[in-house]
Design a protein that fits this description.
117 residues; 4-stranded antiparallel sheet
């Protein structure tokens, strides 16, 4: 249902853009979000965006990361600038998908982001 892409290896100070496409049969998508999980740490929410575009960020990425979505393409993006080694993690997309029956929360498969110093 959710396919994430765009991860890779980048030097500190560089940029990456993650994308996550939602596929399948559904009525709409509510909240979309990006999470990350570094080795030995718990998964944390990095940013979220509502269906009308309201965004929130964890403090450590404010001013550096931007979450956006294209509702026509069922896609959520995470533009990551001024990357730091501590941003190294597996990044997961997440979405609340509304079907005729109910709504469900789905996770993407994760994409690795590695920032070298």
């Amino acid at each position: 249902q959710l396919q994430a892409s765009g991860g890779g290896l980048v030097q500190a100070g560089g940029s990456l853009r993650l994308s996550c496409v939602v596929s399948g049969s559904f009525r709409s998508i509510n909240v979309m979000a990006w999470y990350r999980q570094a080795p030995g740490k718990e998964r944390e929410r990095v940013a979220r965006i509502t269906s009308v575009g309201t965004t929130t960020y964890t403090d450590s990425v404010k001013g550096r990361f931007t979450i956006s979505r294209d509702n026509a393409k069922n896609t959520v993006y995470l533009q990551m600038n001024s990357l730091k080694p501590e941003d190294t993690a597996v990044y997961f997309c997440n979405a609340d998908i509304v079907t005729i029956v109910s709504w469900y929360n789905y996770w993407g498969q994760g994409t690795q982001v590695t920032v070298s110093s």
